[in-house]
Amino acid sequence: MKHIISYFLLFILLITSACSSNYSDIISSPDGKIKLQVGLDDGKIYYTVNKENKPILDKSFLGFTLKDSNLNNGFEIKDIKHSTFSETWEQPWGEEISVDNTYNEMAVNIEEKSGLKRKFTIVFRAFNDGIGFRYEFPEQENLKDFVIMDELTEFALTGNHKAWSIPYNTEFYEGLYNASPVNELDTVCSPLTMETKDGMYLTIHEANLTDYAAMNVYPENKTTVLRTYLTPWASGEKVFMTAPHVTPWRTMIIADSPGDLLLSRLMLNLNEPSKIEDTSWITPGRYIGIWWGMHMKEYTWDQGPKHGATTENVIKYIDFAAKHNFAGVLVEGWNKGWEDWQSFEFSIPYPDFDIAKITDYAASKNVKLIGHHETGGKTKNYENQMEDAFAFYQKYGVNAVKTGYVGGILDNKEMHSSQYGVRHYRKVIETAAKYQIMIDNHEPVMPTGLQRTYPNLMTQEGVRGQEWDAWSVDGGNPPEHTTIIPFTRGLAGPMDFTPVTFNFNNPVLPNTRVRTTLAKQLALFVVLYSPLQMASDMIENYEKNPEPFQFITSCPTNWSKTVVPNAKIGEYVTIARKDRNSDNWFVGSITNGDSRKLSLPLDFLDKNAKYTAKIYKDGKSANYETNPYPISIEETEVSSNSVLDIDLASSGGTAIMISKMK
Ligand code: NOJ
């Protein structure tokens, strides 16, 4: 009741002041540290942001260029409504169970002063970990069907920060993130993470990308003012809108440390609650696959003497999965169409893949077949078969499908991150949900937190993953890559990076190899979060190395808590996660090409309890270049007062399983 009264008073006050032409208003984060101001400057709408009086965004203007007119000036603010909101919601799966969603909101109703008097609302929210805002177009006479040629949203940064980015048109986002000053950026995709000179960490991204184009940003005329560039349709338009409609949220995480970036849940909070009521069929887990062998050219996807997806081979993988506690076996190359990649058939298996026999056998072993839909980027062919394709898999008890969109552009025409692509990917998630199927989306549009609304959207690629170590002619992923992606691509959502290769050499491409130590491969299983987490290598390579492999077969993929004890972007990161189903913790710590020592306080453990820590660390002379395999495994008793010394080889790692003693 108190809340409703204060809301009412503010509303009256603001209606009075809104008559002034240079009107402005402010909201603060619940802890009062972040302040977001909105104002009107000569008929144009702008906002500014600061944290504890340090400016973060100067006057940043807002608006649109439409096909037939501008929608960025001549405005008045009709009124501003303030409100507050607080809830704690639970994730069916994730890096923790409970998420706090507390914010102050300011809904600014804007209208053109004359002419068509078109109107929209900008809703701003201030959280303790950053801000978000979106444009909302209500139903109205003079703005029904319209075309956005440009969104003019600005982020006028107050310094030339260090920024980690990939160009926006990087194919499938599979690029190496480079650090550069903001004013030297290309047009880059979000998330865009920056470090300021005074030690703040900022990430610009978006939340809830629905029937719109993905957001990219570029510096205006080599300044530090970032402007929005929406991925266009082939015909040049950015977005076809029909009011009522809202844009995605434009978001900025504002953190005091790199670790706090990883703990922000702002993007999830700006998505809608789950539309799937019964989530009991959504089950995170570890998986293996008939997969790395194709990338190493040991097997082929299509039929022939080296075909990977044979009934016999799959049964071997199912036996291995059952023995080592893997929930699923991914099988690629099982269906017709791999000969020419033109018109895949999603319900016609190759003759040497007996799906009934395979899925019966898998069920008897309590293992699931993970399905695969490679579309070759032909979304129309896929959409024509989609209902049947998911029904086919459902009939055989398949409850997770990896989708793929290899091929430069969709249907030989549209970009993956265009409104066209966004519409398609949503259709897949919704159709899969109807058939109770989880999705692992490769070659996706950049994730924006939709897994809150559709928890069957488990994981996505959109990252330069481990497969590049199999065939990339540049030699594979450099050592620092995995110390950057948690703070860039990883902030958009779970990554199907597919770590844990145990054999680093490639006889076909001798200069291309895994550029880590073996212990770092184990640590990546914890560091790179994915609820469906793959151990990517061929099973023969795990069989040769049973002891380190035990860490992987014990490591969960669903967590009740996450903490980040050490982090420096591009140099090192340590992440500790608590299992959802036990009192055990798992830690991964990794470094770039430099060997280093870190200190790991175990203060996240329960007080007054004893634990055993099983530590998998780089062996004495290990280094990623000439001696990557030595690993030392030791056990020690620890408590919340313990501080472990972490000793990382160059591109090395440490993985720790900490079990509570009874
Ligand atoms: C690219 C995907 O990233 C990879 O995982 C898959 O094996 C191939 N496409 C074939 O679909």
Oligomer: single chain
Which runs of at least 5 residues are low in confidence (pLDDT < 50)? 1-19
Distance from N terminus to C terminus (CA atoms, Å) equals: 48 Å
Structural class: alpha+beta
Strand content: 35-45%
Main sheet characteristics = 10 strands, antiparallel
The rough form would be described as: globular
Instruction: State the helical fraction.
Output: 10-25%
Gross CATH architecture of the largest domain: Distorted Sandwich
Mean pLDDT: 96
What's the tally of helices? 13
Structural description of this entry:
18% of the residues lie in helices and 35% in strands. β2 and β3 form a beta hairpin. α5 (311-323) packs parallel to α6 and α7 runs parallel beside α8. It starts with a helix and ends with a strand. Bound molecules: 1-deoxynojirimycin. 1-deoxynojirimycin binds next to loops. 1-deoxynojirimycin binds at residues 291, 332, 374, 404, 406, 442, 461, 467.
Topology (SSEs and partners):
Blueprint: H1 2-17, E1 24-28, E2 34-41, E3 44-51, E4 54-61, E5 64-66, E6 70-71, E7 75-90, E8 98-112, E9 119-127, E10 130-137, E11 145-151, E12 154-157, E13 162-165, E14 178-181, E15 188-189, E16 192-195, E17 201-207, E18 215-219, E19 225-230, E20 239-242, E21 245-246, E22 249-255, H2 258-263, H3 266-269, E23 285-290, H4 292-295, H5 311-323, E24 328-331, H6 355-364, E25 368-374, H7 379-395, E26 400-404, H8 419-434, E27 438-441, E28 457-460, H9 468-471, H10 481-484, H11 518-527, E29 532-534, H12 539-543, H13 546-554, E30 559-568, E31 572-579, E32 585-591, E33 596-601, E34 611-618, E35 631-638, E36 643-648, E37 653-660
Parallel strand pairs: 23-24, 23-29, 24-25, 25-26, 26-27, 27-28
Antiparallel strand pairs: 1-2, 2-3, 3-4, 4-12, 5-6, 5-11, 7-8, 8-9, 9-10, 10-21, 10-22, 11-20, 12-19, 13-14, 13-16, 15-18, 16-17, 17-22, 18-19, 30-31, 31-32, 32-37, 33-36, 34-35, 34-37
The chain binds 1-deoxynojirimycin.
